[in-house]
Amino acid sequence: MTNSPAQAAGSLEGIRVIDLTRVISGPFCTQMLGDHGAEVIKIEPPERGDIVRSQGNIVNGFSWYFAQFNRNKRSLTLDLRSEEGKVLLARLLEEADVLVENFRPGVMAKMGLDDETLRERYPRLVVGRINGFGSTGPYRDRPAYDFIAQAMSGFMGVNGPADGEPMRAAPPISDMVASQNLAFGICAALVRRERSGQGDIVETALTNGLIGMMGYLAAEFFATGQVPARTGNDHPMLYPYGLFRTSDGEVAIAPSNDIMVERFLRALDMLHLLDDERFADNPHRMRNREALREILTRVTEQRSVDEWIAHLNRAGVPCGRVHDLRETFDDPQVQAQQMKIELDQGKFGRIPTTGFPVKMSEAPAAVHRGVPELGEHTREILRELGVEEAEISAMQARGVI
Amino acid sequence: MTNSPAQAAGSLEGIRVIDLTRVISGPFCTQMLGDHGAEVIKIEPPERGDIVRSQGNIVNGFSWYFAQFNRNKRSLTLDLRSEEGKVLLARLLEEADVLVENFRPGVMAKMGLDDETLRERYPRLVVGRINGFGSTGPYRDRPAYDFIAQAMSGFMGVNGPADGEPMRAAPPISDMVASQNLAFGICAALVRRERSGQGDIVETALTNGLIGMMGYLAAEFFATGQVPARTGNDHPMLYPYGLFRTSDGEVAIAPSNDIMVERFLRALDMLHLLDDERFADNPHRMRNREALREILTRVTEQRSVDEWIAHLNRAGVPCGRVHDLRETFDDPQVQAQQMKIELDQGKFGRIPTTGFPVKMSEAPAAVHRGVPELGEHTREILRELGVEEAEISAMQARGVI
Questions:
Q1: Mean pLDDT estimate for chain A
Q2: Which candidate in A90, A108, A360, B55 could, as Cys together with A364 as Cys, close a disulfide (CB 3.0–4.6 Å)?
Q3: pLDDT tier at A8 (50, 70, 90 boundaries)?
Q4: Domain-located, residue B279
Q5: Do B346 and B298 sit in the same domain of this protein?
């Protein structure tokens, strides 16, 4: 499946999202909703807007970092600290299906929108929120940041070379994972609302999302009481597996079970190694990993990465090159999957962003609209709300919008 | 928000999922659906079942690795290569809302369930699938595996020390992310189906999911044409940020903007550094990172990790300890958020797993049922389908179930 013609309606068509989020975690979530057809109104403070608008690589006056997280949205400026701003927000919420926020716990309550009030005033509303540690518990008020969530969730602790320090992932993975979890939770709550008429409050946290990814590493710790060791690019339980030296670089090879290992060794013309007691099964191969690595490398270094990839794929062995981002986006498969798309941003030119990872056959994700300039749709949205032109201008003069 | 009493109905109550998946990527997705109330029927080949049942840490005869991905499901054994098996699957699909599979592209078609047939026979069905590279494009038939997806997506290439090799994340992150994307996509398609009556085919891929996480790193590459450098635990655009040496270990500190940096330096009694031209703003601090690191470390190494965490949190600076998994699950916040839960597995005892990262107020995730033994619900499910007892026994004898 590939991407969509822009005119297709998405799965979430007719769902209106009021988006109070900024930086990464919230905007990534609401962008997922927008990609799939929801109408997203991004509310930003007048003057500066989302801080990411002025961060990262600015090309022709537009932040391409901001573009990565804010397509398929309209922008409305609104001073939520002002009384007038709060009144307008209340009017928007009356016609909304979803509200998403990523303030620190307590900020919404200070704005007069505690959980009880939200439930009472907007019983059909699905409220989505992301924070660092969750809205209960001793750290609820601590400031959070991706790097801290990577550290405290145990995620960093399992990553990195065996003889080195714990290693973060470079993408803000805790923000991204919590966003994806929230997008899922919001849609699950919408499914229920379609049936019951009742809204819900959905919450994800940067730390909790990463803890939820620990999978068999958590199982290993629970079962043994031992903290899983860092193993770099080696698999903790399987060998052969990892990066292998070739004549012109390294190739990633991952035979994940005995059948695959047999295929791999046959492809190397080394099937006889399975008759060697040291390598006869996976437990033995794990114990004699370094000896086997040396033997296998003597074979792999005789041919090039490309040769091995062609040869091993024919043999049905999972393998691939370690791509840098240029190689990734130049890759014919990545292009066939349209994982880079270009947004037509008018005077700002065409801005490339990553494509849609969720493909749908009938109601595909699409670029329904580009990335909004700050306040680009303020007047349009207020008009839709029935605010008079003179009033809009007056609010503008007062700095409310 | 915390977790739920077990009796609460989840958001997806009333949604029936036929689950043909195995190993990690599919089972993690269907577990998310089950956690939130969907009724999941896991179909496994007779005799051995999902291969993960015999992998990882086996305690009292039960794989705790399997438990991590298969709570809240019932298990039905069914030989899908047999004609009788296919007929039973067809009957199950008639009453299902969702079908999830993670075969290689083409396998479902060989079973007689190509996209066209699925759409025609089950127009209301939401079909979810995960594969390695997507079901179109030159690599569609290649075998996939998490490590290969980490390599080819560009994810490994941006992770790791500046002077070292690209570094994988230890959890099977491409499986987990594609699962989360699929759970989101399935629910989005269900929202549409509630409104239109029409099903959809939703697909995610291990590589595409990780490419979708590249965020500002992709933006940087698109904007500059330069491949982002690996920077280890340092942030590529911000300083101070990273691990700092203390008197008894390292502490992660992440002031993410100028206000936070000011707070951090004030907390260190080093605010005067901002008057030093070398450190006056972030671009200067990035250029003089090593000099500043040395100055700051001379201060941080005078106190312990615990002292710094208490002190910096009071000052509003994001910081934390790099936890190993024991420290993570012992952490009072993680406990308050119930990110470790125990499943009562009868004769297999109590099995701990990670908790629910998506919290809901009205219809929370819950342990509706435990982890099924292989074929534990075969008879029950076939009875529900109206199959006679004698026929069930005969099929058992023929090895169909």
A1: 95
A2: A360
A3: low
A4: yes
A5: no
Q: Quick check: bond before A332 cis, omega within 30?
A: no
Are the beta carbons of B65 and B395 closer than 8 angstroms? Answer: no
Long-range contacts (CB closer than 8 Å, 24 or more residues apart) made by B111-117: B111/B80, B111/B86, B112/B86, B115/A361, B115/B201
B170 within 8 A of A158, measured Cβ to Cβ: yes
Give me the amino acid identity at B331: D
Q: What angle do CA A219, A224, A228 make, to 5 degrees?
A: 65
Point out the residues of A that are catalytic: 235
Distance from CA of B163 to the nearest CA of A (A): 12
Closest residue by Cα to residue B68 from B362, B348, B352: B352
User: A170 to chain B: which residues are within 8 Å by CB?
Assistant: 158-159, 217, 228, 230-231, 236
Residue A87 included in any domain: yes
The residues near B228 (Cβ < 8 Å, ≥ 6 apart) are A170, A325, B158, B217, B220, B221, B236
- HSE-CB at B32 with a 13 A cutoff on CA atoms is 33
> What residues in chain B have per-residue pLDDT under 70?
1-8
ipTM for the whole predicted complex goes beyond 0.85: yes
Tens digits of per-residue pLDDT, B305-332? 999 999 999 999 999 999 999 999 999 9
Domain harbouring B199, CATH code: 3.40.50.10540
Nearest 5°: the CA angle A265, A270, A275 is 95
Nearest by CB to B333, from A28, A139, A198: name it.
A139
Neighbours of B376 (CB within 10 A): 18
The total number of structural domains in chain B stands at 2
Q: End of a domain among A300, A330, A360?
A: A330
**Single-letter residue type at A256:** S
Domain that holds residue A255: 242-330
